[in-house]
Backbone:
């Protein structure tokens, strides 16, 4: 069995590791530490969060420092304040027996004056978010022209958050002789571009497979009607009494709405979204880390960089717009060898998204059955009684009262006493679920629309041309052609485009969709003109596989190829018929 000592680490670092209780390196540490200690090559590390990569790059960086040289020798870039603070804390812990080592965190939302003072005193390693670091560089308060190494942590997250230009400017200010180490959970095109532009023949270290989820995460999806998402969420929480989970929503407003409903229904929950001030965000996260909250409802952006241990579940209230986001979400549970569960609450029309994620992660998802009200009540009661039986209780102080209690209850039979005891604790739950309906959606026996569209797409070479009868050319005048800047290269297909419109249409609305043509890096689709603003807004709020979607009305020059034409547009029913 490999030990940390066999990796080539110094005695002072080994003492720090030993104090932390670490005995055996993780696979990523075993692969990365010996390579970085040599500082011979640039490196790309593909590894999920929670696999020990901070120690994998942090320990070698500390060991390579010249303690007598007060200049900055290493730079670590992180996408968020939380990750920046956590990495700095971890590095200082590793270096506890190297008191001369100076490590400073530089991030937005904290006093720039304090950070400036720390930098002026001399620092060996800077751990920073791109925006704040770039501000210091432009003010001449940070000199990174002599650094020996730069680490880009969670590079895919950083680029998704829009730090591409900041990252370019920072890397351009570093010496060409430095070694660049890039860590990422996934490898989208933008990360590949950074690697090609700023790295020299990097060695790739992959733990697991590319873009693959953590091995010990169980993936479950529930098929539900859109109107039943929240009720399904409640049943998931009710059937897991010890749940400790992050619930991911697509928008800030939905995050707030779901959190408010959960709080109103008596759950220990709160929201984390971009409108919170830093103090409010810290307060919510402090409660969640102490487990004063069981459920944290968050957007992807707000949750980036969070380091929370021992999550039992990650719940996708909505599936994300790109597979990389799902990988990051699910990677927040099942850490440090523990098992975790990633749950997706999906509409029937979203099953194609599940299939796409399965193919990418090389995982088979379980189709879960939403428990009935009776099952939930029985599970909660037995869980409570199990805790009651196992709990050690000092009954000595009850002895003076016991005779009076027994006399008071003497008229009750054993079964009646148990009934009264249980009802006193579970009456609200039993009442709520007494007539609860079945929320499971059944898939139709016939092939779903996505499968039909895929078959059509194969026949037409990527152009979707549904046939419809009984419509004349006047109907075409009611349709607008839209241009969308994503296509086959981004994994787009007709089923996905229709699915997004389905989700955005709203209740009581029927949108007719006409012809669809999928090109290499763009798409054209026809839909009813009266929904023009809704369709543009829907698609322009998406990210597909890390790429921001831009939708607009297409120009006259952007015509569909003759092969994709049909005699008339095809009506795709969206939810309920309009009145």
Residues:
């Amino acid at each position: 069995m490999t030990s940390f000592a066999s990796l080539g680490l110094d005695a002072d670092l080994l003492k720090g590791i030993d104090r932390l209780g670490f005995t055996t390196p993780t696979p990523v540490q075993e692969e990365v530490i010996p390579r970085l200690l040599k500082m011979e090559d640039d490196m790309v590390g593909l590894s999920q969060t929670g696999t020990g990569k901070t120690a994998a790059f942090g320990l070698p960086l500390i060991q390579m420092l010249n303690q007598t040289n007060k200049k900055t020798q290493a730079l670590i870039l992180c996408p968020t304040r939380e990750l920046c603070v956590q990495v700095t804390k971890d590095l200082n812990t590793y270096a506890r027996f190297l008191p001369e080592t100076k490590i400073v965190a530089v991030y937005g939302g904290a006093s720039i004056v304090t950070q400036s003072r720390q930098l002026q005193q001399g620092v060996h390693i800077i751990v920073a978010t791109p925006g704040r670091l770039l501000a210091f560089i432009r003010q001449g308060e940070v000199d990174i022209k002599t650094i020996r190494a730069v680490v880009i942590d969670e590079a895919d997250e950083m680029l998704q958050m829009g730090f591409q230009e900041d990252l370019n400017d920072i890397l351009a200010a570093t010496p060409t002789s430095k070694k660049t180490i890039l860590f990422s959970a996934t490898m989208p095109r933008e990360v590949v571009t950074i690697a090609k532009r700023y790295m020299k023949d990097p060695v790739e270290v992959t733990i697991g497979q590319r873009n693959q989820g953590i091995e010990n995460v169980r993936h479950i999806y529930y098929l539900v009607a859109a109107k039943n998402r929240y009720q399904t969420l409640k049943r998931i929480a009710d059937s897991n009494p010890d749940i400790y989970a992050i619930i991911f929503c697509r928008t800030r407003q939905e995050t707030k709405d779901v959190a408010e409903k959960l709080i109103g229904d008596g759950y220990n929950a709160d929201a984390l979204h971009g409108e919170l001030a830093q103090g409010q965000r810290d307060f919510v996260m402090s409660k969640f880390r102490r487990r004063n909250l069981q459920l944290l409802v968050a957007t992807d952006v707000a949750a980036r960089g969070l380091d929370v241990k021992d999550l039992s579940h990650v719940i996708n209230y909505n599936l994300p717009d790109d597979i990389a986001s799902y990988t990051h979400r699910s990677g927040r549970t099942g850490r440090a060898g523990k098992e975790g569960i990633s749950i997706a609450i999906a509409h029937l029309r979203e099953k194609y998204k599940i299939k796409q994620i399965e193919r990418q992660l090389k995982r088979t998802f379980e189709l879960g059955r939403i428990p009935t009200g009776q099952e939930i009540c029985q599970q909660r009661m037995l869980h409570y009684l199990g805790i009651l039986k196992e709990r050690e209780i000092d009954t000595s102080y009850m002895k003076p009262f016991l005779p009076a209690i027994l006399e008071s209850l003497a008229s009750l039979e054993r079964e009646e006493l148990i009934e009264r005891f249980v009802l006193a604790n579970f009456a609200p739950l039993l009442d709520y679920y007494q007539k609860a309906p079945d929320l499971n959606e059944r898939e139709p026996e016939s092939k779903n629309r996505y499968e039909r569209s895929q078959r059509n797409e194969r026949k037409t070479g990527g152009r979707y041309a549904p046939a419809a009868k009984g419509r004349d050319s006047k109907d075409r005048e009611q349709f607008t052609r839209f241009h969308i800047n994503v296509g086959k290269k981004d994994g787009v297909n007709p089923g996905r485009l229709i699915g997004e419109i389905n989700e955005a249409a709203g209740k009581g609305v029927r949108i007719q969709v006409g012809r669809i043509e999928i090109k290499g890096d763009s798409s054209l689709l026809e839909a009813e003109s009266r929904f023009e603003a809704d369709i543009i807004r829907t698609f322009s709020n998406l990210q597909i596989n890390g790429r921001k979607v831009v939708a607009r009305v297409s120009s006259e020059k952007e015509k569909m190829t003759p092969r994709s034409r049909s005699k008339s547009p095809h009506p795709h029913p969206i939810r309920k018929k309009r009145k």
In short: The domain at 5-206 is CATH 3.40.50.300 (Rossmann fold). The chain has four domains: 5-206, 217-367, 373-433, 449-564. The two ends are 70 Å apart (CA to CA).
